[in-house]
Amino acid sequence: IPTLDEITAAKTKVQYEQGRFHFAVAGVAGSGKSSLINAIRGLESRHEDAAKTGVVETTVTIGRYPDPNSDFPFVWYDVPGAGTLHQPDWLYFNAQGLFVFDCVVVLFDNRFTQTDIAILTNCRRFQIPTYIVRSKADVHIRNIMYENGYDSDFDEMPGRESQYSTARQKFIADTRENVKRNLKEAELPDQRVYMISNRTLLSIVKDRSLQFSYRIIDELDLIKDILDEACSPR
């Protein structure tokens, strides 16, 4: 349990401000934390105020990103990825000062890991609201289509829509089952997992567009629930 001095130091480090709602996006290296923060703030990755993204882990210190929409007094934090040489799993929660945030988004890509479980367990101890989010839904669905024989050189090939629908349903079912099983094994309560594509999320936030509505899985629900969380009294 951190001391009052440690809590004060952690709040100073992240420039915690009364009257703002502070979201930490945490998880293993390479899960797409920077891309998620950019998408939910409605910014392309090349924007001058965007969080830095890359194939390898690019975040070595906590990045602080106020929401560009003045109607939302939110601050988003890009937390260095756990599981790297710089950030051992067992030090992750306390070393990053995750105990001072108002909400923690636990983001994963391929597998829901023990690191994610550790973050959720500690958040539960500190009564910090959490959201479990799986990123890159579009990539995973496409990969399942490839495994089922889809050829991307022929986007108009017969049965494409049916293959996409089948792959989408499998991705959703497998993700829910994986998270449910891991939470049960860790003796944590069942919790919803949000499956998103950053490209779809960016289109919704930036362009206010549902042009690719067939691609939407949980992007709209994630936005709504995060807004509700930030507006609810604590």
According to CATH, the homologous superfamily is P-loop containing nucleotide triphosphate hydrolases
List segments where confidence is low: pLDDT < 50 over at least 5 consecutive residues: none
| Number of strand segments | 6
Mean residue pLDDT? 86
CATH fold-level name:
Rossmann fold
Structural class: alpha/beta
C-alpha Rg (nearest Å): 18 Å
Q: Which overall shape is indicated by the principal axes computed on the Cα atoms?
A: globular
- SSE series: HEHEEHEHEHHEHH
Q: Number of DSSP helices? A: 8
The strands making up the biggest β-sheet line up spatially as 2-3-1-4-5-6
Domain IRG-type G: 19-218
Family: Belongs to the TRAFAC class dynamin-like GTPase superfamily. IRG family.
Organism: Pisolithus tinctorius Marx 270
Keywords: GTP-binding, Hydrolase, Nucleotide-binding
